[in-house]
Write a structure and sequence with these properties.
Layout (H helix, E strand, L loop, with lengths): L26 H27 L1 H14 L4 H18 L11 H10 L9 H10 L2 H5 L3 H17 L5
Helix pairs in contact: 2-3, 2-7, 3-5, 3-7, 4-5
């Protein structure tokens, strides 16, 4: 036997190293953690602010869905222009949309929508508000659906400058 190699019964168990803390050892990590936490708080606050700011949009889309499913087509069609005007008034923009009509109303609708709107959209809305009941009931289903789709598109896609 080789005298330089110890026997197996001479081996000893090694002691465990001292436990290592997971807490950062330098102040720089605390700064990074603080900045990360501040960034998350700002991101959450902006998301909450955006969600609250778009409450009018969610409520209008919900009302549009109710009108679309309504059993009274005349009442639903009559309410579309009012609903769009209420949405425009509720928008957090400095321009007052309440008194707009005709070409100015069409210009407002087009300028705040990211998608193209029909050229006579404001005229269609005026027709819905003021036409006789017989004329509205005579509208084909495709045109009614197109009006609802266009209104929903504008409510969903209109741009509000911040």
């Amino acid at each position: 036997m080789n005298p330089h190699i110890p026997a197996i019964d001479q081996l000893q168990e090694l002691g465990l190293p001292a436990p290592i803390s997971y807490m950062p050892q330098t102040w720089g990590w605390w700064v990074v953690f603080g900045l990360l936490l501040a960034g998350l708080l700002v991101w959450a606050a902006r998301g909450y602010w955006h969600w609250r700011r778009n409450r009018y949009r969610r409520e209008a889309l919900q009302r549009l869905a109710q009108l679309r499913a309504s059993d009274e087509p005349l009442t639903a069609l009559r309410e579309l222009p009012t609903l769009l005007k209420r949405v425009a008034i509720s928008m957090p923009v400095p321009q007052a949309a309440g008194p707009l009509k005709g070409d100015a109303w069409q210009g407002f609708l087009v300028s705040h929508c990211t998608q193209p709107l029909p050229e006579d959209f404001s005229q269609q809305l005026a027709m819905l508000a003021y036409a006789p009941d017989e004329q509205l009931l005579a509208l084909p289903d495709t045109q009614r659906q197109q009006l609802f789709d266009t209104c929903a598109l504008w409510v969903e896609q209109h741009h509000v400058a911040v």
